[in-house]
Design brief:
heterodimer, A: 381 residues, mainly alpha, ABC transporter involved in vitamin B12 uptake, BtuC, two-stranded antiparallel ribbon, two-stranded antiparallel sheet, 16 helices, 4 strands, globular, B: 253 residues, alpha/beta, Rossmann fold, four-stranded antiparallel β-sheet, 11 helices, 10 strands
């Protein structure tokens, strides 16, 4: 039994190592395989050691720090937040820019997490809502000179409306069928943006969007954008956390688990699904307005199917339904390609390999979701 | 209609506020296939009524039609004397109809206690919910033991108990049970039926759909026999148990 597991994991490590070979050289490739083998086999090794009654102190340390995190959640959050707040002071412009990108994708991934992770609706055209937000600000500015702060709620709401528009016809669909239709919706949005020359200026995109400003202070340095997106990220985390633990969140999870049973418990399935679509889309809209305000340029190129897939990967990789997991997933999937940038030609290969391996070793995601204990349990002791 | 029908028809027509649920000539179709060809039945308050019949006779369809998941194409369904044809399933839960769906359908990745809490989704009275939770735990002590376990890790019998417990958490006045003994070991079947009788001690009326006709009839007050979308027999449960036709077709005697 254990032998089989070792064999299986070795094969996967070998496979990933082979993928890495072309751009790492023979020696480095073999080294990589060796390291991967050790990482993969470590848990099994621990199991073997534990069987002979020897405890591993490293593991105890890990579990005790996990316990500390559980009991001192607020403290941990505060530390994390202050870390995020002072981080850009020690980074160069390039890294701050990457961090801003991380922020945008965290907002997007948390939004998609509501639809896919909590409610269990596999949506593939999610980036369309991001486009709605971005184009909303771009058009409002170029036509009516409506500023960033006013466009923010408008773009968010409009994306939410689009969420309902997409949601209502596909309510009866599940699984693969839903994925196909939402994928179509995403492509339609991109193609319309690409071809409606009078409104969107087609593939040329819209130039000259105003940067956001507070009074006379114009936000233009990466670091300024960093703090702005940090605020949005905190807002998004706050709202999605509250939603997850509300009645609505419970209804969403119930729908994900079993739709018929949820209806039998008195959940209005139709309404709750629409609400999930609207909420998820609204966050994408928020991200989109920010994106337009940062790039001061939007074009259909930014909203390809690949982007939808990336956001979905962040949710799945991080752990569906788990907010810290999804955040970690977003950060990992933004930083990983950046870090692999020197291997320009092979990075997608490596990236795909890493994703596949991840799904095999840890299908529940980096940080699997844990439902908070509900009120009743605490009261009963 | 068979002659037996007349025995209990005395109260059938006319308003009777002791009757909680009444189906009048209900027809339900799936596409062009008519699953219910016009059935009429009624439940008095605090009664256990059982619907027996072979596979495909329309038992589950009857339950689905009552709780609004499938819409009837003809006839009337009166709950508390009001037609509930247009009401959605979730509205009916609020009005007091809960169902335990066939195949249990618990939430597999939620813990037992979360499953039970979902049952009380429509309610806001915390104190009431907690006392009902205690009641469910006393009906099914095993659920208390397993309250932190994921629903999907329970055994078949435990899942059935959880499904019944979850339905009770909505504090229903009418409980629809679909094949509670399906796939359970004989000992567990005994236990489930004991509990059904215990639930009846409360204020709950139960409509029980079963293939295990003998068990169902021995715990029910009255019974209906469904064949090909039509009710062919109705009587008190004890008389149905003695009925030659029922014996031959459903009791395996």
């Amino acid at each position: 039994m254990i032998k089989n597991k070792i064999l299986e994991k070795s094969i996967w490590a070998l496979w990933l190592g082979l993928l890495a070979l072309p751009f790492m050289g023979k020696k480095a490739g073999i080294l990589a395989i060796a390291i991967l083998l050790v990482i993969l086999l470590l848990p099994l090794l621990n199991g073997l050691i534990a069987r002979f009654g020897i405890s591993v102190s490293r593991l105890n340390f890990l579990s005790s720090s996990a316990n500390w995190l559980k009991t001192n959640k607020k403290m941990a959050l505060l530390i994390l937040f202050s870390f995020a707040a002072i981080l850009p002071l020690f980074m160069n412009r390039y890294f701050v820019d990457v961090a801003v990108l991380c922020g945008i994708y965290i907002v997007l991934a948390l939004g998609l997490n509501v639809i896919v992770g909590l409610t269990g609706l596999l949506a593939l055209g999610y980036i369309a809502f991001y486009a709605v937000g971005a184009y909303c600000y771009a058009l409002l500015w170029t036509h009516y000179h409506i500023n960033f702060w006013l466009a923010l709620p408008i773009g968010t709401a409009l994306a939410g409306v689009f969420g309902v528009l997409l949601g209502s016809p596909v309510l009866r669909l599940r699984g693969d069928y839903l994925a196909i239709v939402t994928l179509g919706f995403g492509e339609i949005t991109r193609i319309v943006l690409n071809n409606w020359d009078e409104l969107t200026r087609g593939p040329n995109g819209i130039l000259g969007i105003a940067r956001p400003s507070i009074g006379d202070f114009i936000i233009k340095q990466p670091i300024h954008y960093y703090y702005l997106i940090l605020a949005f990220v905190v807002l998004t985390i706050f709202i999605t956390t509250r939603l997850e633990h509300s009645r609505i969140g419970r209804a969403w999870v119930a729908i994900r688990e079993d739709e018929v049973a949820a209806a039998a418990c008195g959940v209005n399935v139709t309404l709750m699904k629409l609400l999930a679509f609207a909420t998820g889309a609204a966050f994408a809209g928020l991200g989109g307005v920010f994106f337009a305000g940062k790039m001061i340029f939007v074009s259909p190129e930014s909203f390809t199917f690949m982007e939808s897939v990336m956001v979905l990967c962040m949710v799945v990789l991080g752990g569906m339904g788990s907010i810290p997991g999804v955040i970690l997933g977003a950060i990992a999937l933004i930083i990983l390609p950046e870090a692999l940038r020197q291997f320009q030609f092979y990075r997608l290969l490596m990236f795909g390999g890493a994703m596949a391996l991840m799904m095999i070793i840890r299908p529940q995601g980096l940080i699997p979701s844990q439902r908070r204990k509900m009120e009743l349990e605490e009261e009963n002791g | 209609m068979p002659a037996l029908y007349l025995d209990i028809v005395g109260k059938k027509r006319g308003v009777n506020n002791n009757i909680i649920l009444k189906l009048e000539d209900v027809k339900t179709s799936y596409g062009r296939i008519e699953a219910l060809k016009g059935i009429s039945l009624f439940l008095r308050k605090r009664e256990i009524v059982t619907l027996i019949g072979a596979n495909g006779a329309g038992k589950t369809t009857t339950l689905m039609t009552i709780c609004g998941i499938v819409k009837n194409s003809g006839g009337h369904i009166l709950f508390d004397g009001e037609d509930i044809k247009e009401a959605s399933p979730q509205k009916l839960v609020r009005r007091g109809i809960s169902q335990v769906p066939e195949g249990r359908r618990i939430f597999p990745r939620l813990s037992v206690i979360e499953n039970l809490e979902m049952g009380a989704f429509i309610r806001n009275d915390r104190a009431g919910i907690r006392s009902d939770l205690e009641r469910v735990y006393s009906l099914f002590p095993i659920l208390r033991e397993r309250r932190k376990q994921k629903g999907g890790t329970l055994s078949g019998g435990e899942q059935q108990m959880l499904a019944i417990g979850r339905a009770l958490m909505a504090r229903p006045r009418l409980l629809l049970l679909d094949e509670p003994s399906l796939g359970l070991a004989p000992m567990l079947v005994e236990q489930i039926f004991r509990i059904i009788e215990e639930i009846k001690q409360g204020e709950v009326t139960i409509l029980l759909v079963e293939q295990n006709a003998k068990k169902a009839l021995s715990c029910a007050d009255r019974g209906y026999v469904l064949e090909n979308g039509l009710i062919t027999l109705e009587d008190t449960a004890s008389r149905l148990l003695e009925n030659e036709k029922v014996k031959a077709s459903y009791l395996g005697a």
